[in-house]
Specification:
2 domains, about 140 residues, Dna Ligase, domain 1, alpha+beta, about 45% helix, Arc Repressor Mutant, subunit A, 3-stranded mixed sheet
């Protein structure tokens, strides 16, 4: 889904969209870097110097609540945001914190988890942790 489709859906739900909010959404849809709110703020501020960090967080929360982005939380690290809301896996660098997508068919374990635990499973998230190629190069130098 592109930015225009998402904007149309949100407008139909009564969500007001400013040029700053549109810039946030377009940036998330155009990047594969899984940026932090601060990185999004720096990017949008270059085009809209008056944008506040509060606007960034409010927009991210609204987009997440409507199911158009994912928030990836990592404990003491800053959350990262993914413009692809479909469930998929990620690789996380333990040194620099970079997050990249890992596309493969999802494991079909929700039913098994329900059977074994008694939980009603709504979804699952799986990540792989390691050292990215750039950090591995730095280790060798």
């Amino acid at each position: 889904m592109d930015a225009i489709d998402i904007l149309r859906k949100l407008k139909n739900k009564g969500v007001r969209f400013t040029p700053q909010r549109q810039a946030i959404l377009e940036f998330l849809l155009s990047t594969k870097s899984h940026p932090t709110a601060e990185e999004i703020y720096q990017h949008v501020r270059a085009k809209f110097p008056g944008v506040s960090l509060g606007t960034i967080y409010n927009t991210l929360n609204m987009l997440k609540e409507h199911g158009h982005i994912l928030e990836l939380s990592y404990g003491d690290m800053s959350s990262r945001f993914d413009g692809n809301p479909d469930n998929h896996y990620h690789l996380v660098c333990s040194k620099c914190g970079k997050v990249v997508d890992f596309h493969r068919p999802l494991l079909d374990v929700n039913h098994e988890a329900e059977e074994m635990s008694g939980f009603r499973v709504l979804g699952h998230r799986m990540e792989f942790y390691g050292v990215c190629p750039e950090c591995r190069k730095d280790e060798m130098n």
